[in-house]
Amino acid sequence: MKLQTRSLHLGYENRLVVKGLDLELPSGKITTFIGPNGSGKSTLLRSLARLLKPRQGSVLLDGKAIHRLPTKEVARQLAILVQGPQAPEGLTVEALAWFGRYPHQGFFAQRTEADRAIVERALQQTGMVVFRDRPLETLSGGQRQRAWIAMALAQDTPVVLLDEPTTFLDLSHQLEVIHLLQRLNREQGKTIVMVLHDLNQAARYSHELVVIDGGEVVAQGQPTEVITHDLLRRVFGLEAHITLDPDTLTPHVIPYGLSRRS
């Protein structure tokens, strides 16, 4: 499943956020968008999922303009977890997960044994089986986040897009989620595209990094190619030591001061 952009312009009202972006995302890999706040990362992710229509240019899914494809067809190929999702009061964890099966169901929305197995697997993968009958509003922030991830997994798509999937989670649950995404990529070949703020998590767990600043891609490649002292200064305004993670030999950033962004 190939996902790319061509001369993509994105914006809100009178503000242009992404400007003429050409980007190709590797299939079957974990790609992470990094960059300062307001750089356009989440805006780009929403456009990739057809939640935001381009001002100009296009998002291509296997060579076809995604905004011209039927909604259900796109939803069978792409699942997205946005920031701060909302659900009706009283909706249970299992009921939320079932929403992920909607793109795969027919007109009468009949639930099959295959649907049930996929929903059950999504609940198990996210550790939400024990909470299946709990309304979302009774859960902690981290539990709610895992419930929404379960819905995205129940959609059972080859591509999964996640905007800050570790938000509200403590460190152990952050690692649970990221390790889950790793397993989905490694064992099922899913293409994972996510936005992260933690540079070290992004470098350790991603095959490829895309650095976005001012609505433009300023660097793209493997973490060892992308994470440099110059980039940290220019994009993040950081002075930092860069060491190698002893387990993965990926860059590990240790900030020690602020620099003036050029």
List keywords for this structure.
32% helix, four-stranded antiparallel beta sheet, 2 domains, Rossmann fold, 12 strands, six-stranded mixed beta sheet, alpha/beta, 262 residues
Query: How does the helix and strand content classify structurally?
Result: alpha/beta
Poorly predicted sequence stretches spanning 5 or more consecutive residues: none
Helicity range of the residues? 25-40%
CATH superfamily descriptor of the largest domain: P-loop containing nucleotide triphosphate hydrolases
How do the SSEs run, as a string of H and E?
EEEHEEHEHHHEHEHEEHHEE
Task: Give a nutshell description of this structure.
This protein is of the alpha/beta class and 262 residues long.
Structural notes for this entry:
This protein has helices at residues 41-48, 71-75, 93-99, 113-125, 141-154, 171-188, 199-205, 223-226, 229-236, and strands at residues 3-12, 15-25, 30-34, 56-61, 64-65, 78-81, 159-163, 191-195, 208-213, 216-221, 238-244, 251-258. It has 262 residues and is of the alpha/beta class. The chain folds into two domains: 1-77 and 158-168 and 189-261, P-loop containing nucleotide triphosphate hydrolases (Rossmann fold, 3-Layer(aba) Sandwich); 85-156, no CATH class. The strands form three sheets. It has a six-stranded mixed sheet with strand order 6-7-8-3-9-10, with helices on both faces. The protein has a four-stranded antiparallel sheet with strand order 2-1-4-5, covered by helices on one side. It has a two-stranded antiparallel sheet with strand order 11-12. β9 and β10 (216-221) form a beta hairpin. The model has no long low-confidence stretch (mean pLDDT 93).
